[in-house]
Amino acid sequence: MWKFAALFCMAASLPAGNIKTPGADYSQFEKKLSKDQSILHALNRLTFGPRPGDIAAVKKMGLEKWIDLQLHPERIAQRPQLDVRPSPAGNSAQVQPAQYAQDKIYRAVYSNRQLEEVLVDFWYNHFNVDMTKGADRRLVPAYERDAIRPNALGKFRDLLGATAHSPAMLFYLDNWQSVAPEQTGRANAKRPTRGLNENYARELMELHTLGVDGGYTQHDIIEVARCFTGWTIDRPNQDSGGTFRFDARTHDKAEKIVLGVTIPAGGGMDDGETVLDILARHPSTAKFISKKLAERFVADDPPPALIARMAQTFQATGGDIRAVLATMFGSREFFSQGAYRAKVKTPLELVVSAARATGARVESEAGLVNQTGVLGEALYRKIEPTGYSSANAEWVSSTALLARMNFAIQLAGNHVQGVLMDSSRFSNDPAAAAKQILFADASAQTLHSIQKKPAPPKADLIGLILGSPDFQRK
Predict the structure, then answer these.
(1) Into how many domains does the chain fold?
(2) Which of 229, 301, 421, 442 could form a disulfide with 434 if both were Cys (CB 3.0 to 4.6 A apart)?
(3) In this predicted structure, which of 38-52, 55-69, 358-372, 449-463 has the lowest mean pLDDT?
(4) In terms of domains, do 181 and 93 share one?
């Protein structure tokens, strides 16, 4: 048990969050990083963690050029294995949840288009769908593949529209059963009463676009729900998984007013499209999306000035996600002491970055998929529409840190199913071994915690480094 004692000695050094009050001091975001720190920081944020050789490769290419390349994944040659194992193709109804989660892990570990994979994960969480809900078991693979992935770096309006049309989203938030009040009809044993369902309308504004303080009211929720009546699914419970269909018979054909904009009667399916247009170009959406991106890539409490510049880019470019990201990645705040190692890795980021940093060979992803669930982030299985949080406080507790240390020790000892790590490639010296895994010098606290006991076996040394706060941070 001595190997876990270091965990509790070091836990206090992990950031539990950096939420500040109005008028807070953001001066740390004005302090520049060194060149080496900047490269490591970019690799930690734009990828699922650096691999041996990545820092040298970025130095050779140049950091700005490397970032630009990640922003244009179509220019990056993909690994041959990823061409063999696409994300996944074919009949989505035949893709099992466990298989799909394994594909996610495989791409996160091995794809050269790392920012694309990070963004697919980000946007899936933003537009979360729980794969365990009924027909979504069959619908989710096509949802991520066809709605999220192709639009991850495109225009936000296109991404918003793709998710709104997706049978997975329509089923998850029950809009497929939402009908105009006058179409409700009588209930009977075989066909229960249906009516207006506000679930999608509410989450569309609160979670997908405007944000909870974005300026909408309960009346707006009802009007948006009316606009989306008739947006349904053809045969959702069949083996084919279901397809989008607009049912004019169940659509509310009367006039609606959304956020002060009158939508004339008789618009049919275009009523919903008009709502998406209104929301995508709303200033609150520009701010909300910019803030959420900055919270994921910069810090839990990003400087308001950075969010404002990102939101300005969002509006000036018609919601061009790539342009908003370029504004953020090119900012002084991103490459600052305030952002450096200020975020705690999510379980997905932890297990993937550990495999990447150690050069482990992943022969089967099942073990890593299982570990994400053990650590609190079961892939595609977040019940609430909020998705998994990127906030530090979500992942920092004594129980969570103990579970992370357990994973680290198991991985280092080759006790994670399907993952093989060669410990002989690491130095016996704790400081040198830590630098091999962290790609930077370990903190004095981490080294002290590792060295205060007699020299541990090599696997335990590697496990302690992987379980240290230094590795939990990014």
Answers:
(1) 2
(2) 442
(3) 449-463
(4) no
